[in-house]
């Protein structure tokens, strides 16, 4: 018995989520994550999302301070009455475990706050990784009226690129000494100044960011564990949103994201259909004809697609 055979009132959940009911939001995100067969239904129920949420990726190496920064940002955003969603994607410190968002005490401050939704989700093992379930989870949070959705992901290689393509705004966290594994110098101001200098030098080399009207990523100094510099991060995020909207870049990014999502879904569906042909005679027959030299693989692929 799969999860999808159980009776679920998706439309009712979507309505409750739109009213901002935390349990409905949580349930929908779980369904999106664990029940791929329901994604279509959920997507349909959420079409009338507000489209207002600014998706902010918070990324960086393991242990760099993403959760601490996220928790601190929630607090400053809530002071301005901003509705906040948080998605911890593939958290290295799992939710159920101890170190939820780094600091359990601080997170508990938000446990009863109806203006904050916090969910973790695992994309490991999902076909398409981040691209499969996360966009839908973001749509749920958007539909629930979030103004800002913070997405915490460990930035190692591919994931960093992926989150940048999913988010409107990406904050990359760097700590001095991380590269050498010297955690002790984290809060060391000279070390941080050096990192900032290196970044500025790199930005100066990457000339395309200095074109008129372009966006030059601000370098913001913070000590998240002491709540220092968090206002500056919030201000930089808000400024980026203004820039995105003013230049039409927000719309362009959303359209690019929708295109990627549509393409991923179409590819997934094609792959499923091709996999089904493994069970019929079509694919084995084509394979035999390729080996026999009757067809080249390109012609065989055309025939395969025609059969799907
Ligand atoms: N000195 C210093 N320590 C920090 C700062 N931010 C976070 N920490 C500490 O660094 C450790 C890791 O912080 P987390 O916020 O859990 O880091 P993370 O990037 O979320 O870690 P993972 O999710 O496991 O990749 C914790 O002990 C924090 O208290 C900071 O700005 N300065
Ligand atoms: Mg973390």
Describe the structure.
The structure is a single chain. With 308 residues, the protein is of the alpha/beta class. It is 51% helix and 10% strand. It contains twelve helices and five strands. It has helices at residues 10-18, 22-34, 39-45, 66-79, 104-108, 130-143, 158-166, 189-205, 230-247, 249-278, 282-291, 297-307, and strands at 54-60, 84-89, 116-121, 148-154, 169-173. It has a five-stranded parallel beta sheet, with helices on both faces. Strand 2 (84-89), helix 5 and strand 3 (116-121) form a beta-alpha-beta unit. Helix 1 (10-18) packs across helix 2 (22-34). It is globular and about 70 Å long. The two termini are 28 Å apart. The relative contact order is 0.12. Residues 94-105 and 181-186 have low confidence and may be disordered.
Q: Could you name the key traits of this structure?
A:
308 residues, alpha/beta, five-stranded parallel beta sheet, binds guanosine-5'-triphosphate, binds magnesium ion
Quick summary:
The protein is α/β, with parallel strands linked by helices. The chain is built from 12 helices and 5 strands.
Question: Based on helices, strands and strand pairing, what is the structural class?
Answer: alpha/beta
User: What is the C-alpha radius of gyration, as a whole number of Å?
Assistant: 22 Å
- How many β-strand stretches? 5
What is the helix content? 40-55%
Mean pLDDT: 82
Biggest beta sheet summary: 5 strands, parallel
Q: Count of helices?
A: 12
Beta-strand percent range: 5-15%
Main β-sheet, spatial strand arrangement: 3-2-4-1-5
Element order: H for helix, E for strand: HHHEHEHEHEHEHHHHH
Distance between the termini: 28 Å
Ligand inventory: guanosine-5'-triphosphate, magnesium ion
Shape: globular
- Please mark out the parts with pLDDT under 50 across 5 or more consecutive residues, or reply none: 94-105, 181-186
């Amino acid at each position: 018995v799969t999860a999808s055979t159980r009776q679920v009132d998706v439309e009712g959940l979507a309505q409750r989520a739109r009213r901002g009911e935390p349990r409905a939001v949580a349930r929908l995100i779980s369904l999106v994550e664990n029940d791929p067969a329901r994604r279509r239904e959920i997507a349909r129920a959420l079409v009338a999302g507000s489209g207002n949420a600014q998706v902010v990726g918070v990324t960086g190496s393991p242990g760099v301070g993403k959760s601490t920064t996220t928790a601190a940002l929630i607090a400053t955003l809530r002071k301005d009455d901003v509705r906040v969603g948080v998605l911890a994607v593939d958290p290295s410190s799992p939710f159920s475990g101890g170190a939820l968002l780094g600091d359990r005490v601080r997170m508990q401050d938000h446990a009863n706050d109806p203006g904050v939704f916090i969910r973790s989700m695992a994309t490991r093992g999902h076909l398409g990784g981040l691209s499969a379930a996360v966009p839908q989870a973001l749509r749920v949070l958007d539909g629930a009226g979030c103004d800002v959705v913070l997405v915490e992901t460990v930035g190692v290689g591919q994931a960093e690129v992926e989150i940048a393509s999913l988010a409107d705004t990406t904050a990359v966290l760097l700590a001095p000494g991380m590269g050498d594994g010297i955690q002790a110098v984290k809060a060391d101001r000279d070390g941080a100044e050096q990192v900032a200098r290196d970044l500025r030098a790199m930005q100066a080399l990457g000339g395309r960011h200095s074109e008129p009207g372009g966006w030059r990523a601000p370098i913001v100094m913070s000590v998240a564990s002491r709540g220092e510099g968090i206002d500056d991060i919030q201000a930089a995020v808000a400024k980026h949103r203004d820039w995105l909207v003013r230049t039409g870049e927000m719309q362009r990014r959303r359209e690019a994201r929708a295109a990627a999502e549509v393409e991923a879904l179409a590819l997934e569906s094609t792959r499923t259909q091709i996999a089904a042909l493994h069970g019929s005679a079509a694919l084995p027959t084509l394979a035999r004809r390729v080996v026999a030299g009757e067809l080249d693989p390109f012609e065989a692929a055309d025939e395969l697609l025609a059969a799907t």
